[in-house]
Specification:
Length: about 250
């Protein structure tokens, strides 16, 4: 209907007419979930989950996707945890939506804390077994995916998401370590070890099935975030939070 109205009533030249038609399309190229509810942990950090998708168990290649806000740049697929959803399920859902891949979910690399944008991202490893020809974000916002070597991925992330390079650092250093199912995943600052030469802390996080069974972790408690902190969109990028529903704070206990 909008196209018909412009065609019948707009008095400008053909170029201006085409700009009017394209502008509404460009506005829709940013991924938004207007009805989503953001979940926060007990410390007021927004809860997110992401996947390092690897091509094989050798973990020599990782899959990145284009940013919804800057489609010429690459990021790790991930997004916000939804109500009553485990982080492991969020991770598999987000990679299917953003990258169009499915596979075997493996170890957790840790919970990566971004104090600047006030979110914590639980990151898993997935060995990809199926790549769809078309997927949700490829059809709605034109998102692309591409395989990179670890070194290439580090270079690409440095251009737009330098903090996500910590995921790959932990991927390399955790591959041959043993994991305990009794300890929660460690919280790792995204702002530490920027030279990527220092050995990260020992990772004791569990595989996805163990996390899914842990219903009593304090991190899953939703809270209202501090009003002064910068909010982020579905890619973990700065965004507006006006009129956005948030999960209620927990009921105080005596």
């Amino acid at each position: 209907m909008c196209e018909t109205e412009y065609q019948l009533s707009y008095p400008g030249n053909v170029f201006d007419y085409l700009v009017l038609l394209v502008s509404p399309i460009q506005d829709k190229m940013v991924k938004e979930k207007p009805n989503s509810i953001r979940i926060y942990d007990k410390d007021g950090y927004r809860r997110r989950a992401a996947c390092i998708c690897v091509r094989s168990e050798a973990e020599a290649e990782v899959l990145l996707v284009t940013s919804s806000r800057r489609p010429e740049l690459w990021i790790v697929p991930g997004g916000g945890v939804e109500p009553e959803e485990e982080a492991s399920l969020t991770a598999t859902r987000e990679v299917l939506e953003e990258a169009g891949v499915m596979g075997q979910l493996g170890r957790c690399l840790g919970v990566f804390e971004n104090s600047e944008h006030m979110h914590r991202t639980e990151v898993f490893v997935m060995v990809v077994t199926q790549e769809l020809d078309e997927w949700e974000d490829s059809k709605t916002i034109g998102r692309k995916r591409q395989w990179f070597s670890i070194e290439e991925a580090l270079s690409q992330l440095a251009l737009h998401k330098p903090t996500q390079r910590h995921y790959l650092q932990q991927l390399r250093h955790s591959k041959h370590r043993t994991y305990s199912s009794s300890d929660p995943p460690p919280i790792i600052s995204e702002h530490d070890n920027d030279d990527f030469t220092i050995e990260p802390e020992t990772n004791n996080c569990t595989a996805s099935e163990d996390i899914a069974d842990d219903k009593d972790t304090t991190e899953s408690t939703p809270t209202t975030p501090p009003a002064c902190n910068t909010m982020t969109d579905e890619d973990g990028e700065p965004g507006q939070a006006a009129n956005e529903p948030v999960s209620p704070p927990p009921t105080p206990t005596t």
